[in-house]
C-alpha cells in the first residue's frame, strides 16, 4: 500500500519536473532575438506584406530598410526573407526579422486580429492602408496630400512619413501626377475607344467600374467596355462579348509570355472567331508589367502601356509625356 | 411498358422545350436580330450542344456508378475525377509557366487528369481480377483528398502566376463554348458510345443489383461488368469535365429523378437520366445566361443545384417514409 502511494507520488513529482523543464525550455528566450530592440536606436526595419507598397518603398530609394516581404512579391529585391502573407503569417520568421514596422494593404474586413496581437506581442507598428480604388488614393498612400505632416486624410501616416522621407515621397507623388496629367493631355484630342481590360481568361474576366484601372483607362483616352457592370470583376461569355464589341482588348497579366494570334494562343481561345472589332482588327495587346494588377507607383508605366495600346498613332506624344521628370 | 414510353416521350418533350428556351435566352429574350445575329445564334447552338452532352454524360455516368457501387449517393465525382481534372488543368498551366508559353487548350489537362485519377483508382481497387465496390469508393474518396491537397500545394507555391483565379472559376463549372469543333465532336462520339454501352449492359446491371451469388448464378460475369461500368462511367464523366469543368449535382440527382419516374430497370433509367440531365443543364444554362444583375456570366454549376434540388425534393416527398414501413 505504502509502496503504491510512494510510486504514485514519485510519478507526480517526475511529471511536475518534466512539465517545469518543458515550460522553462519553451520560455527560454536567451537565444531568441530581442524583438523591437532594433527600433530603439532610431533605425527602421520594414516588413512589407503588399507588393504595391514594396514597389513604392523601392521607388522611394528606401529598399535598404526592407527586411522582409510577403510571398509572391514580384516587386521585392531578390534575396529578401519571406514571412508568408497577411492571412498566414510565419510568426517565427517575422520575430527573427525584428521589424519596427509592418506595412500592408487591407480590404473591407480591416486588419486581421492575429496581426494586431502580433504587433502588441513583438512591439512593431502596424501600418495598414485601405486597398486603393482611385489614383488619388494610391498617391495618398505614397505621400501626404498637403504639406508634409498633414496626413493623407485616412488617419494612417503616408508611407513617405513612415519611412522618414516625406519630401522624397512628395516629389515622387508629384512626378506621378504630372506625368499622368501629361499623358492624359497627349491623348486628349483622340477619340475615346471602347476597351475591355481582361484580367482572367477562362472565362473572360474584365476589370469593371470603380477600379484604379477604370480611372487610369479613362485618363489614357479609353472607355471601359465593362463600365455597365455592377461588380469590379465581371465575367463574360461569348454572347456578352459580341454585345460589348470592344475596339481594343488589353490583357493585363503580370510577367506573361508574349501573345500569339487569336486562333493559336490558348489564352485567347474564348475570343476565337468572334465578330468583335478587337478580334477582327487584331487589336489585342498584352500588358505584362509585374505590377499591372496592383495599383502602385508603377501607375505611369502601366498608363504608358495602356495609352500606346489604345492610341498607337500617338506614340511620339505619349513617349514625350512619359519622359517628363 | 406503355407508361414508360409515355414518360420517356414527356422527358423528350421537356428536353426539346429546354433547348428551345435556351436558344431564345441570351442578352435579352427572343431570337437574335441585327447584323451579328448569325454569330449569336452560332454561340447559342454551341451552348445547346455543350449542355446536352454534359448533362447526358454526367447523368448516365451517375446511373452506372450507382449500379457499380450499389450506393445511391454515388456520383461521377466521388472517384476523384473532378479533382484529378482540376489538377491536370493546373499541371498544364504550370508547365506553361515554366516554359514561358501557354501549352495547348485547357481541356487536354482536364482529360489527362481525370483519366489519370481514374486509372489510379481502378488499379488500386482491383484485387484478384475484380473491383471491390467498397474499396473503389474508399480509394476514390482518398484520391479526391490527395488531389485536393496537391491543388492546394500548387496554389500555395505558384499562386502568383495567376493559376488560382482561373482554377477557382473553372471549378464552379462553366460551359467551354470556345472548345474546338474537333474536340466537341470527339466528346459527342464518346458520349454516344458510352450511353450505347450502358444500354447494352442494362440487363446485366439489373441482375447485378441482386446479391453477388444470385447475380453470378444468373450468368452475369460481375468482374467484367464492374470493369466495363467503371471505364464507361469514367470516360463519360471525363468528357463532361472537358466540356464544362466539374458541374456538381447532375450526376447525383438525375438518376434519382429518372428512377422515381421510370422505376429501377437500368435500360430505361439510362435513357431517362440522360434526357433529364440534358434538360437540367439546358435550364441551368438558360438561367446563368438570362439572369444578369451586372455581374456578367454566372457559373452554370450554381444553377444545376438551385434548379434540380427543389425539383428532386418535391418528387421525393411522396416516397418518404416507405422505407420505414
Features:
heterodimer, A: 325 residues, alpha/beta, Rossmann fold, four-stranded parallel beta sheet, B: 325 residues, mainly alpha, ABC transporter involved in vitamin B12 uptake, BtuC, two-stranded antiparallel sheet
What is the CATH superfamily of chain B?
ABC transporter involved in vitamin B12 uptake, BtuC
Oligomer: heterodimer
Return the CATH architecture of chain B. Orthogonal Bundle
Strand order of the largest sheet of chain B: 1-2
What is Rg of chain B?
A: 20 Å
Order of helices and strands of chain B: HEEHHHEEHHHHHHHH
Question: How many structural domains in the coordinates of chain B?
Answer: 1
Structural class of chain A: alpha/beta
Strand content of chain B: under 5%
Task: Indicate the topology.
The complex is a heterodimer of chains A (325) and B (325).
Chain A: H1 2-27, E1 46-48, H2 51-59, E2 66-69, H3 91-97, E3 101-106, H4 113-122, E4 125-130, H5 135-142, H6 159-162, H7 166-186, E5 193-201, E6 204-206, H8 212-219, E7 222-224, E8 235-236, H9 238-244, E9 248-252, H10 277-280, E10 284-287, H11 299-310, H12 315-322
Parallel strand pairs in A: 1-2, 1-3, 3-4, 5-7, 5-9, 9-10
Antiparallel strand pairs in A: 5-6, 6-8
Chain B: H1 2-24, E1 25-26, E2 28-29, H2 37-69, H3 81-99, H4 106-125, E3 126-127, E4 130-131, H5 133-158, H6 163-171, H7 181-208, H8 212-217, H9 222-244, H10 250-262, H11 266-290, H12 300-316
Antiparallel strand pairs in B: 1-2, 3-4
What does this structure look like?
The complex is a heterodimer of chains A (325) and B (325). Chain A is of the alpha/beta class and 325 residues long. Chain A folds into two domains: 37-181, 3-Layer(aba) Sandwich (Rossmann fold), CATH 3.40.50.1980; 191-322, Nitrogenase molybdenum iron protein domain (Rossmann fold, 3-Layer(aba) Sandwich). In chain A, 38% of the residues lie in helices and 14% in strands. Chain B is mainly alpha-helical. In chain B, helix 2 (37-69) runs parallel beside helix 7 (181-208) and helix 4 (106-125) packs antiparallel against helix 9 (222-244). Chain B has one domain: Orthogonal Bundle (ABC transporter involved in vitamin B12 uptake, BtuC). Chain A binds chain B through residues 71-72, 74, 199-203, 205-206, 228-231, 234-240, 242-243, 253-257, 265-267, 269-272, 274-275, and chain B through 26-27, 36, 39-40, 43-44, 96, 100-106, 159-162, 165-166, 169-170, 174, 176-178, 289, 293-297.
Amino acid at each position: 500500500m505504502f509502496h503504491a502511494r510512494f510510486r504514485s507520488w514519485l510519478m507526480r513529482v517526475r511529471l511536475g519536473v518534466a512539465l517545469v523543464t518543458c515550460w522553462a525550455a519553451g520560455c527560454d528566450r536567451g537565444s531568441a532575438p530581442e524583438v523591437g530592440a532594433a527600433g530603439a536606436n532610431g533605425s527602421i526595419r520594414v516588413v512589407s506584406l503588399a507588393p504595391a507598397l514594396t514597389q513604392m518603398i523601392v521607388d522611394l530609394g528606401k529598399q535598404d530598410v526592407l527586411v522582409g516581404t510577403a510571398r509572391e512579391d514580384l516587386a521585392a529585391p531578390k534575396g529578401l526573407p519571406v514571412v508568408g502573407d497577411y492571412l498566414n503569417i510565419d510568426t517565427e520568421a517575422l520575430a527573427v526579422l525584428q521589424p519596427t514596422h509592418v506595412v500592408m494593404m487591407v480590404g473591407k474586413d480591416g486588419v486581421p486580429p492575429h496581426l494586431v496581437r502580433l504587433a502588441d506581442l513583438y512591439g512593431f507598428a502596424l501600418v495598414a492602408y485601405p486597398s486603393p480604388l482611385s489614383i488619388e488614393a494610391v498617391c495618398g498612400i505614397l505621400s501626404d496630400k498637403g504639406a508634409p505632416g498633414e496626413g493623407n486624410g485616412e488617419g494612417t501616416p503616408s508611407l513617405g512619413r513612415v519611412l522618414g522621407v516625406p519630401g522624397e515621397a512628395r516629389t515622387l507623388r508629384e512626378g506621378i501626377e504630372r506625368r499622368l496629367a501629361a499623358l492624359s493631355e497627349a491623348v486628349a484630342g483622340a477619340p475615346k475607344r471602347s476597351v475591355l481590360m481582361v484580367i482572367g481568361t477562362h472565362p473572360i474576366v474584365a476589370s469593371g467600374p470603380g477600379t484604379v484601372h477604370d480611372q487610369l483607362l479613362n485618363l489614357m483616352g479609353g472607355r471601359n467596355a465593362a463600365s455597365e457592370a455592377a461588380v469590379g470583376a465581371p465575367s463574360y461569355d461569348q454572347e456578352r462579348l459580341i454585345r460589348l464589341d470592344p475596339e481594343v482588348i488589353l490583357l493585363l497579366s503580370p510577367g506573361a509570355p508574349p501573345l500569339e494570334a487569336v486562333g493559336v494562343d490558348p489564352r485567347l481561345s474564348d475570343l476565337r472567331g468572334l465578330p468583335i472589332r478587337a478580334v477582327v482588327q487584331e487589336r489585342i495587346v498584352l500588358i505584362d508589367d509585374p505590377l499591372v494588377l496592383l495599383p502602385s507607383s508603377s501607375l505611369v508605366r502601366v498608363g504608358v502601356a495602356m495609352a500606346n495600346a489604345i492610341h498607337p498613332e500617338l506614340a511620339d506624344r505619349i513617349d514625350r509625356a512619359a519622359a517628363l521628370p | 411498358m406503355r407508361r414508360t414510353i409515355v414518360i420517356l416521350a414527356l422527358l423528350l418533350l421537356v428536353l426539346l422545350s429546354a433547348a428551345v428556351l435556351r436558344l431564345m435566352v441570351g442578352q435579352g429574350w427572343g431570337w437574335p436580330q441585327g447584323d451579328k445575329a448569325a454569330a449569336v445564334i452560332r454561340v447559342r447552338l454551341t451552348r445547346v450542344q455543350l449542355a446536352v452532352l454534359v448533362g447526358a454524360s454526367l447523368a448516365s455516368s451517375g446511373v452506372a456508378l450507382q449500379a457499380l457501387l450499389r450506393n445511391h449517393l454515388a456520383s461521377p465525382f466521388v472517384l476523384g475525377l473532378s479533382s484529378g481534372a482540376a489538377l491536370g488543368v493546373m499541371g498544364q498551366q504550370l508547365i506553361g509557366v515554366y516554359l514561358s508559353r501557354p501549352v495547348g487548350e485547357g481541356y487536354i489537362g482536364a482529360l489527362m487528369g481525370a483519366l489519370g485519377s481514374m486509372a489510379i483508382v481502378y488499379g488500386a481497387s482491383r484485387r484478384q481480377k475484380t473491383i471491390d465496390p467498397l474499396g473503389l469508393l474508399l480509394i476514390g474518396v482518398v484520391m479526391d483528398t490527395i488531389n485536393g491537397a496537391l491543388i492546394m500545394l500548387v496554389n500555395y507555391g505558384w499562386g502568383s502566376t495567376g493559376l488560382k483565379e482561373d482554377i477557382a472559376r473553372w471549378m464552379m463549372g462553366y460551359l467551354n463554348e470556345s472548345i474546338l469543333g474537333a474536340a466537341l465532336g470527339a466528346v459527342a462520339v464518346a458520349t454516344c458510345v458510352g450511353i450505347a454501352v450502358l444500354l447494352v449492359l442494362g440487363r446485366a446491371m439489373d441482375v447485378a443489383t441482386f446479391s453477388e451469388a444470385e447475380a453470378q448464378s444468373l450468368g452475369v460475369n460481375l468482374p467484367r461488368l464492374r470493369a466495363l461500368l467503371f471505364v464507361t462511367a469514367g470516360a463519360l464523366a471525363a468528357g463532361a469535365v472537358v466540356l464544362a469543368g466539374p458541374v456538381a449535382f447532375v450526376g447525383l440527382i438525375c438518376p434519382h429523378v429518372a428512377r422515381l419516374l421510370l422505376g429501377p430497370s437500368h435500360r430505361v433509367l439510362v435513357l431517362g437520366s440522360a434526357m433529364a440531365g440534358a434538360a437540367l443543364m439546358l435550364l441551368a444554362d438558360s438561367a446563368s445566361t438570362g439572369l444578369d444583375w451586372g455581374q456578367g456570366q454566372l457559373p452554370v454549376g450554381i444553377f444545376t443545384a438551385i434548379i434540380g434540388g427543389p425539383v428532386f425534393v418535391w418528387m421525393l416527398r411522396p416516397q418518404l417514409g416507405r422505407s420505414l414501413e
